[in-house]
Amino acid sequence: MPSHLLPRLIVASDKFKGTLTSADVAAAVSFGVRRVCPDAIIDAIPVADGGDGTLAATVASGFQLVPVTVTGPTGEPVRSGFARRGEVAVVELADVSGLVRLPGGRPAPMTATSHGTGELVAAAIDSGCTRVILGIGGSASTDGGAGLVRALGARLYDADGIDVAEGGAALIGALAVDLTALRDRLAGVEIVVACDVDNPLTGPTGAAAVYGPQKGADPHQVEELDAALTYWADLVARTSERDLRDAPGAGAAGGVGLAALALLDAQLRPGIDLMLELVGFHQQLADADLVITGEGALDEQTLHGKAAVGVAAAAGAAGIPVVAVCGTNRLDPDRLRQAGIVAAYALTDLEPDVRRCIADPVPLLRQLGERIAADHLPRSTMTATERDTA
Do residues 324 and 345 lie in contact, with contact meaning Cβ atoms separated by under 8 Å? Predict the structure, then answer.
């Protein structure tokens, strides 16, 4: 039997945060689908939106992991790396400068740095990569991206010519920025930033006000950080001759967005759109009968640039129906349909105890895979011999 007559599915799910990688989700769902439809052709395409899980997703899609030991958000060495395919590198800020890298989970809102992310970008460039994709979700710092650019060769020095300390609070002491070494290193290199927020750098919707409390900043520290970022924005504007503090995404990752735009000449792209391009998702949609996407929770945040909606939009444009798996679903059927998802299957549909869902999600995902196959795929009528010769 020609293979195109068999049902063909694509499983393109984001991670279930803190529980399963995107590859784990795909494996569990595929197992369940094949219980009901053993002849189904299933392609797993791990996806991410540029935040945590991006590195794992790109490696699972065929990129090579290049391990590198770099500086964590509070100065300790951490083992991270970048993903590489040819001259393209993928760097995940969350894996090196993210909240998950804070020792003991203790926040350091005033002193945390993005320096290690810059070290990863530098390592990728030094290895010969000429295009660097930088995912900037999950930052532990509010340093305006100063650490990032310093790791790439920039100097921030005070009135005495001494390098200022790392972290957002120290920015207020910087007199000037020297970009000579940074520009030499970035010559001929394209930086593309995967970014899913549109916050400006400063003000009531800026990096410090919106995200500072999540990083441990109290109200006084939020004000101090916002003032430091304002001062930094002035300095960056004088240095680059471009004032981009109000550009959408400038406040992403504690201001890394501003540094990338103004000092690295980076292009900001929606994270999921960029990741789908990297893993060749659009090309793999041909002849698919169904796409299964997902993430840990389907909620209002999902509708604002998250992976599941990005997958649904791409599949919908190709006329392919999309269903979703998730831990919990807080979207009603109308909201799901507006997002291009015809149905959602949640772990909590099977097990109301969220703690149990988190502790042992694989058997539940397998059951959801069975339900999806039963609801959306024709039952197989092929004999074992026909399957073996198909």
Answer: yes
The CATH architecture to which 54-272 belongs is Alpha-Beta Complex (3.90)
CA trace torsion 300, 301, 305, 307 (10° rounding)? -100
Q: Are strands 64-71 and 41-44 parallel, antiparallel or unpaired?
A: unpaired
Three-class DSSP category at 67: strand
Q: Which residues are CB-neighbours of 109 under 8 A, at least 6 positions away?
A: 142, 168, 212, 215, 216, 217, 221, 225
Please state, rounded to an integer, the average pLDDT across all residues of the chain: 92
**Paired strand residues for 77:** 71
Alpha helices in 241-306 (DSSP H): 256-263, 271-278, 281-284
Question: How far is the C-alpha of 237 from the C-alpha of 260, rounded, in Å?
Answer: 13
Q: What is the largest CA-CA distance in the chain?
A: 81
Give the pLDDT confidence of 142-152 residue by residue, as tens digits. Answer: 999 999 999 99
- What 8-state DSSP symbol labels residue 51? S
DSSP 208: I
Best CA proximity match to 171, nearest among 191, 186, 154, 152: 154
Mind giving me the DSSP string for 160-193?
A: TSPBPPSSSGGGGG--EEE-HHHHHHHTT-EEEE
Got the DSSP string for 229-243? HHHHHHHHHHHHS--
Band (pLDDT 50/70/90 cuts) for residue 379 is low
CATH architecture of 3-47+282-389: 3-Layer(aba) Sandwich (3.40)
Domains 3-47+282-389 and 54-272 alike in fold = no
Dist. CA 116–CA 356, nearest whole Å: 36
pTM tops 0.85, yes or no: yes
Q: What is the pLDDT of residues 106-162, one digit of tens each?
A: 999 999 999 999 999 999 999 999 999 999 988 999 999 999 999 999 999 999 999
Please list, in sequence order, all residues whose beta carbon lies within 8 angstroms of the beta carbon of residue 323, skipping any fewer than 6 positions away: 290, 291, 292, 293, 341, 342, 343, 344, 345, 372, 376
The pLDDT tens digits of the residues spanning 293-334 come to 999 999 988 887 788 999 999 999 999 999 999 999 999 999
Q: What CA–CA distance (Å, rounded) separates 14 from 161?
A: 46
The domain segmentation of the chain, as residue ranges, is 3-47+282-389, 54-272
